[in-house]
Amino acid sequence: MSARHEDGVATTHRVVILGAGYAGLSAAIQLASRVKRSGNVRVTLVNAQERFTERLRLHMSATGQRLAELSIPELLAGTGARFERGWVTAVDADAKTVRIDDERVLPYDTLVYALGGVADTAAVPGAEDHAYTLDSAQDAGTLADRLSRLGGGTVAVVGSGLTGVESAAEIAERHPELRVVLLGRSEPGADMTPKAGAYVRSALERLGVDVRSGVEVVKVLPGTVELAGGQSVAADAVLWTSGTRVSPLPAAAGLTVDAHGRIVTDAALRSVSHPDVYAVGDAAAIRQGYGVMHGTCQGGMPTGVHAAVSIVQTIKGRRPKPFRFGYYHTPVSLGRHDAVVQFTHPDDSPRRLYLTGRAAVRYKETVTASPWPTWGRMKKMPASGAFWPRGGRFTRFGEAR
Ligand SMILES: Cc1cc2nc3c(=O)[nH]c(=O)nc-3n(C[C@H](O)[C@H](O)[C@H](O)COP(=O)(O)OP(=O)(O)OC[C@H]3O[C@@H](n4cnc5c(N)ncnc54)[C@H](O)[C@@H]3O)c2cc1C
Question: Is the pTM of this model over 0.85?
Answer without folding.
Answer: yes
